[in-house]
């Protein structure tokens, strides 16, 4: 298995050599950039070298909040806080539990099924993280400006965009030219509000609304 | 007592005032307090409702916390994440038990039941779908839900892992225990009602089944939202809406007015007790007050009654220094004054003002008293009536003042004579009564002698010395009578005897009283006797021995009493004279005699009728007019009547008698001097009298045959009569010898048994006929 992983990483490096950049701009219906949208491209793509992904926990938050990995990627959960965390997921794509740990003592977790894995900390309810396990080597997560850049060889692809706060995913076909970097504008539907931002009201206050 | 006493009225007024005041103040206080209490009860209920709401909220918070304990449990989340219903159910049962929930369930994202701690059909949970979905945004949601007929406080909470993987619901049954607990905390009746499928239903509560029915009948929902507190019947109600969805669930909070008024009832009782105590107290005070006002009045009224009864010694006990005391003092003074005045009046009533001796009114009381004393002591009692001989002469000849002085002196002496043990009373004018207890007959005599000695000397009056003599009559108790009346009458009889006999002192002798009584009887029977013809006239002829046809008669009165038989005319005429009735009798005699004369004249017989007049008749100034009228009526000449008058009759009030005789004479009547020779006729007077006849008393005639002296007297009298030109009549002629002597000596008229005794009218008529025809006599 170890070998395989390393091979994957190598393949990715190979592909990179002749890849072209695909710029994806994700915006919502009101034209605002959508951050943390997972953009994936499906098609005839070269294998990419498997790397170990990191889902850090810093300042009682998952960092990054949204992590995209290819199927079969191992993800480590280092704890940068000076307190313990108890990371778990009940998502069907990956059920796991890292019982209270400190630093980098936790074993990496293999995500071998595609799907959305919701991460939580059992002792810190406000911690919420997502790992999107994708069955494709080409993917990226939009930045603050709603931009993501994918390096794919020219060709025709299926572009899939999803977001933790959107029920639906968006799919569209894209063509990447050989000469010029592609740029895709994706308009996204309404997003649900960030669950972490509704902590102002206490539970008790909400009780009698 | 039909009259309502002043005291009662006063008390009634006072009590009425108190009752009115008490009642009004009690009612006012009661109304105010009751209103306040009811008002307070409303506020209590409002406060209770608020408290109830808070309690329910607190409980919901506690429940929510309990739910969060469940939903935060990692194992629970893990179990839910497994989506294994059996596992989830077991977890729910376990956790429900842990947090003491009555129901725990998990719903999926579509709010379909995943699992429940209770084994109920799925449709029972349908209501839960109608609840607002919960999310991390909404947090826990609280509601009341009726599941399977049971009311639950339901808290729905999202299961976050870390995103929502479902909804946990925890139900806490609202049961009787909770209701009771809430009742205890709020002091209100707590009822939970729900509108289940449009049908109100009582779910739980503290009410009795009866009260539940009543409450449900009132449709408590109708009030929700309008008015938080209202009153229905005896209950104050408040509705707190607990949930609008999926069903309307309310809590009805109640407080029985009776319960709210319970403290008031105590207060009310106290008020009532207070009012009653006031009433009783006021009653006592009113009674006391009324008593204090009316007691002196009644006291005084009592004294006044006693005064009216003649008791003047009653002390007037009224204290206090107020007007009543003044009145009481006035009463006391009045009592004394009345007593003194009455004493004085009584003294004056009982005593003679002149002599200061007890007066006539005291005769019997003193007599009875003295008799009793003597009887008790075994003594005798001299009852003596005294009068002053010829007292009128003293008055007339000296002066009434002297008379008074004499009476005073006599009274004083008599009083001194009887001393301490006896009594002296003044009976009237110059009469006194002496009562003297003595040991025996000898001492009685001694006493009378003492009296005689006392007055056998000159009385030294202020200016004059007077010698007086007393008439005294007495009777002795018990020998001559035991009763006061008898003794007094007998003493009076004795006095009369003393007066008449000039003995001065006379002791009653037995028989006098009987005579006296007989006289009284005669007097009483006199008038009736006239009417009954018991009294009639008898006639005795007066004969002229020389001339047969010259005949006269003397009318003599006769009384045949039904009891006493023949009554001596002298006796009853004396009685009638003393009673002042003689003129009545005289006039009857004259009238009867006149009728007889007329009757005889009708038969052809003319005669002169002699009628006796008493001394008192001569004092009647109208006798002549009476006789004149009578003669006129009977058409008779005045010559047919001859009035016979005794010497002594003329001597009394001689002038007046003489004048009247003169009048009778002028009328033409014949006047005759009767019983001549027995009195002290003065010849000078005789001479002045218009007399036609002299009638020699029969005492000289009866013994004429044997007595030489009588013959001398009669002879000289006849001569004297003839000398004066008078006709001389002799009465009492009983023998022929006497008749012959009288005729021989010139006597004009003869009268006596020799001719005829006095006979009744009819018989006299026959006798006359016989005599005039020349028959024998």
Features:
heterodimer; A: mainly beta; Immunoglobulin-like; 2 domains; 5-stranded mixed sheet; 2 helices; 11% helix; 45% strand; disordered N terminus; B: alpha+beta; Beta-Lactamase; 5 domains; 10-stranded mixed sheet; 5-stranded antiparallel sheet; 25 helices; 51% helix
Overall description:
The complex is a heterodimer of chains A (209) and B (777). Chain A folds into two domains: 16-44 and 140-190, Immunoglobulin-like; 49-136, Immunoglobulin-like (Sandwich). Chain A is built from two helices and 17 strands. Chain A has helices spanning 2-18, 203-207; strands at residues 20-28, 38-42, 53-54, 56-58, 61-63, 66-70, 73-76, 85-89, 96-101, 109-111, 115-121, 124-134, 138-141, 147-152, 155-162, 170-176, 182-188. In chain A, the strands form five sheets. In chain A, strands 6-12-11-8-9 form a five-stranded mixed beta sheet, with no helix packed on it. A four-stranded antiparallel beta sheet of chain A has the order 13-2-15-16, with no helix packed on it. In chain A, a hairpin with a 6-residue loop joins strand 8 (85-89) and strand 9. Chain A is globular and about 50 Å long. The model of chain A is unreliable at 1-17 and 198-204 (pLDDT under 50). Chain B has 777 residues and is an alpha+beta fold. Chain B has five domains: 72-173, 2-Layer Sandwich (Beta-Lactamase), CATH 3.30.450; 177-259, no CATH class; 310-349, no CATH class; 351-508, 2-Layer Sandwich (Alpha-Beta Plaits); 534-772, EAL domain (TIM Barrel), CATH 3.20.20.450. Chain B has 25 helices and 27 strands. In chain B, strands 18, 19, 20, 21, 22, 23, 24, 25, 26 and 27 form a ten-stranded mixed beta sheet that branches. The longest helix of chain B is centred in the first third of the chain and has 66 residues, at 6-71. Chain B is rod-shaped. The model of chain B has no long low-confidence stretch (mean pLDDT 84).
The termini of chain A sit apart by: 54 Å
Q: What's the helix-strand series of chain A?
A: HEEEEEEEEEEEEEEEEEH
Total of DSSP H or I helical runs spanning 4+ residues of chain A: 2
Rg of chain A = 18 Å
Low-confidence stretches of chain B: none
> Biggest sheet of chain B: strands, sense, closure?
10 strands, mixed
- Helix amount of chain A, in percent? 10-25%
Corresponding CATH architecture of the largest domain in chain B: Alpha-Beta Barrel
The number of helical segments of chain B is: 25
Report the structural category of chain B.
alpha+beta
CATH fourth-tier homologous superfamily of the largest domain in chain A: Cupredoxins -  blue copper proteins
What's the CATH architecture name of the largest domain in chain A? Sandwich
CATH topology heading of the largest domain in chain A: Immunoglobulin-like
* Counted beta strands of chain A: 17
Large-scale geometry of chain A? globular
Main CATH class of the largest domain in chain B: Alpha Beta
CATH uppermost class of the largest domain in chain A? Mainly Beta
Question: Oligomer, anyone?
Answer: heterodimer
């Amino acid at each position: 298995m170890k070998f395989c992983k390393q091979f994957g990483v190598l393949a990715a490096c190979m592909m990179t050599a002749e890849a072209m950049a695909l710029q994806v701009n994700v915006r919502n219906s009101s034209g605002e950039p959508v951050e943390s949208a997972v953009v994936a491209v499906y098609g005839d793509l070269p294998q990419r070298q498997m790397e170990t992904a990191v889902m850090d926990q810093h300042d009682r938050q998952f960092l990054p909040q949204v992590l995209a990995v290819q199927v079969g990627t191992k993800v480590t959960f280092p704890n940068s806080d000076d307190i313990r965390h108890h990371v778990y997921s009940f998502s069907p794509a990956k059920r796991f539990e890292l019982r209270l740990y400190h630093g980098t003592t936790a074993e990496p977790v293999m995500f071998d099924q595609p799907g959305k894995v919701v991460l939580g900390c059992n002792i810190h309810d406000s911690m919420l993280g997502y790992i999107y396990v994708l069955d494709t080597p080409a993917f990226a997560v939009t930045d603050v400006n709603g931009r993501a850049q994918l390096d794919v060889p020219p060709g025709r692809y299926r572009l899939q965009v999803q977001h933790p706060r959107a029920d639906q995913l968006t799919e569209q076909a894209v063509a990447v030219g050989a000469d010029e970097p592609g740029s895709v504008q994706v308009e996204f539907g309404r997003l649900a509000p960030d669950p972490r931002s509704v902590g102002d009201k206490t539970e008790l206050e909400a009780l009698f609304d | 007592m039909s009259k309502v006493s002043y005291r009662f009225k006063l008390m009634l007024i006072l009590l009425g005032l108190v009752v009115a005041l008490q009642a009004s103040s009690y009612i006012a206080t009661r109304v105010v307090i009751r209103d306040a209490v009811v008002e307070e009860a409303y506020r209590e209920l409002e406060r209770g409702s608020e408290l109830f709401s808070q309690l329910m909220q607190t409980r919901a918070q506690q429940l929510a916390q309990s739910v969060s304990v469940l939903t935060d449990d990692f194992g629970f989340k893990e179990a839910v994440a497994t989506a294994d219903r059996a596992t989830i159910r077991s977890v729910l049962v376990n956790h429900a038990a842990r947090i003491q929930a009555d129901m725990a369930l998990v719903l999926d994202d579509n709010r379909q039941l995943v699992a429940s701690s209770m084994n109920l059909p799925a449709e029972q949970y349908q209501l839960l779908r109608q609840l607002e979905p919960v999310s991390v945004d909404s947090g826990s949601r609280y509601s009341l839900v009726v599941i399977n007929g049971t009311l639950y406080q339901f808290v729905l909470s999202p299961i976050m892992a870390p995103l929502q993987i479902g909804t946990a619901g925890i139900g806490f049954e609202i049961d009787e225990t909770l209701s009771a607990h809430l009742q205890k905390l709020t002091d209100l009746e707590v009822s939970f009602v729900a509108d289940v499928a449009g049908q109100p239903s009582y779910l739980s509560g503290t009410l009795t089944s009866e009260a539940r029915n009543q409450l449900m009948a009132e449709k408590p929902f109708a009030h929700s939202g309008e008015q938080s507190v209202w009153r229905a019947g005896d209950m104050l109600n408040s509705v707190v809406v607990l949930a609008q969805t999926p069903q309307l669930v309310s809590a009805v909070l109640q407080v029985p007015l009776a319960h709210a008024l319970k403290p008031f009832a105590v207060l009310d009782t106290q008020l009532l007790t207070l009012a009653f105590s006031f009433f009783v107290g006021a009653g006592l005070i009113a009674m006391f007050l009324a008593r204090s006002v009316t007691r002196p009045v009644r006291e005084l009224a009592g004294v006044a009654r006693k005064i009216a009864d003649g008791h003047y010694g009653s002390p007037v006990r009224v204290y206090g220094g107020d007007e009543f005391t003044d009145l009481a003092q006035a009463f006391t003074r009045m009592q004394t004054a009345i007593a003194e005045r009455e004493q004085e009046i009584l003294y004056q009533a009982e005593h003679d003002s002149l002599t200061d001796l007890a007066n006539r009114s005291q005769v019997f009381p003193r007599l009875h008293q003295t008799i009793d004393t003597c009887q008790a002591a075994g003594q005798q009692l001299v009852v003596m009536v005294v009068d002053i001989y010829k007292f009128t002469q003293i008055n007339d000849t000296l002066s009434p003042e002297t008379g008074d002085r004499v009476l005073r002196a006599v009274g004083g002496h008599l009083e001194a004579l009887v001393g301490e043990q006896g009594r002296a009373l003044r009976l009237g004018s110059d009469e006194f009564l002496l009562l003297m207890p003595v040991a025996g007959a000898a001492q009685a005599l001694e006493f009378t002698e003492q009296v005689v000695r006392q007055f056998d000397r000159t009385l030294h009056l202020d200016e004059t010395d007077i010698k007086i003599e007393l008439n005294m009559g007495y009777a002795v108790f018990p020998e001559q009578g035991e009763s006061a009346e008898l003794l007094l009458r007998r003493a009076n009889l004795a006095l009369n005897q003393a007066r008449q006999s000039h003995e001065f002192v006379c002791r009653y002798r037995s028989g006098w009283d009987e005579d006296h009584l007989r006289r009284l009887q005669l007097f009483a029977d006199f008038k009736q006797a006239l009417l009954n013809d018991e009294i009639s006239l008898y006639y005795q002829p007066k004969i002229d021995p020389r001339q047969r046809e010259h005949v006269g008669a003397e009318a003599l009165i006769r009384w045949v009493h039904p009891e006493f038989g023949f009554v001596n005319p002298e006796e009853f005429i004396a009685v009638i004279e003393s009673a002042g009735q003689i003129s009545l009798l005289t006039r009857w005699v004259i009238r009867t005699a006149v009728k007889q004369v007329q009757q005889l004249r009708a038969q052809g017989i003319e005669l002169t009728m002699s009628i006796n007049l008493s001394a008192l008749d001569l004092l009647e100034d109208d006798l002549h007019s009476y006789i004149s009228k009578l003669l006129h009526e009977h058409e008779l000449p005045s010559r047919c009547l001859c009035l016979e008058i005794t010497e002594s009759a003329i001597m009394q009030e001689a002038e007046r008698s003489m004048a009247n005789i003169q009048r009778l004479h002028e009328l033409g009547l014949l006047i005759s001097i009767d019983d001549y020779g027995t009195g002290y006729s003065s010849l000078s007077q005789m001479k002045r009298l218009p007399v036609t006849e002299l009638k020699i008393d029969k005492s000289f005639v009866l013994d004429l045959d044997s007595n030489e002296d009588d013959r001398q007297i009669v002879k000289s009298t006849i001569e004297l009569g003839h000398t004066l030109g008078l006709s001389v009549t002799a009465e009492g002629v009983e023998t022929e010898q006497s008749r012959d002597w009288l005729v021989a000596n010139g006597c004009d008229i003869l009268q006596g048994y020799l001719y005829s005794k006095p006979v009744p009218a009819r018989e006299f008529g026959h006798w006359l006929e016989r005599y005039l025809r020349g028959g024998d006599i």
